[in-house]
Amino acid sequence: MVKVAIAGGSGQVAREVIDALIATKKHEITILSRTEATSKTFPPAGTKWQAVDYSDIPSLTAALQGTHTVLSFIQLLSDPEQTAQKNLVDAAVGAGVKRFAPSEYGSKGTVDMPWWHGKEIVRGYLRAINEEEDVLEYTLFQPGLFLDYTAFPHKTSKYLDPLQTVWDFKNRRAIIVEGYEEAVMTLTTVADLAAIVALAVGYEGRWPTNGGIRGNRVTVSQIVEIGGRVRGAPFAVEKVRLDDLEAGELKTSWNLEAVHHAVAQEDAAALLKMVSIGVLTSCTKGAWDVSDELSSLFPDYQSTSIEDFHRGLWEGKRS
């Protein structure tokens, strides 16, 4: 059993992971938050809640005393310079924390995805503090894109809200970059991510820095083929040119409509266009071809296949 601190623990992905950790019945879990607990249902039974000030490194250090592992889920968009996470790293080092996982939970690369620029800041900070000597073991939990998002508008997990992707299973359509039909995507359910994170927390060996979690490694053309099989009709595919995308142009008849809850409504349209373009172009550059370096440590764990996931979801449904 180890003591685990969860930073940003009220977020959707964090809550999926917290439930998986609680289910192991092995760890002492403390949820760190900028606010006091206000809900009768959160924090869940079996956890502790601690209000912290991420701008106060000494108090953060005190809060982390005796902690073995820190998992960060701090929202990147709310802190462009990533001051909170950098302070959390400093506090973890000061408190003698053994393991740290920054707020990742997506692609391995961030090229053409400015909304994830904060990940590069924190990655660089972690590399720098370990440059002369190994002071903090860390891993980057990277499951690729959550497979659950391709189920839009259906909610397939307890906490993760549905979000649209350029592979629209509901309406049997997809957007693909012309000439990059074999570009690779990694798709992993949030439940599989949470399970692997829980296994990693209990893992007694050293964490690999590259925390790749490969639920499914598929090409974009395979996603479309699978979609046609499980939905009973071929997808309508719109192909876009890479040079148009890189010029900021999305020449399609449709685009995403559902925006993340952390985004202001007045910023939604611009961000949705940016996300579509960013995911499409970054995919052509290998950003979503996640390794299985972490998940391969647990060969007995069987991740959910994309085809099984969608067959179970859409069977008997028309929309």
From TrEMBL:
UniProt xrefs under InterPro entries: NAD(P)-bd_dom_sf, NmrA-like, NmrA/Isoflavone_reductase-like
Species the sequence originates in: Exophiala bonariae
Keyword NADP tagged: yes
Protein name: NmrA-like domain-containing protein
Keyword Magnesium: no
Lineage of the species this protein comes from: Eukaryota, Fungi, Dikarya, Ascomycota, Pezizomycotina
Molecular functions per Gene Ontology: oxidoreductase activity
Pfam families membership: NmrA
Record key words, sorted: NADP, Oxidoreductase
UniProt similarity note: Belongs to the NmrA-type oxidoreductase family. Isoflavone reductase subfamily.
Domain of life assignment: Eukaryota
NmrA-like domain residues: 3-246
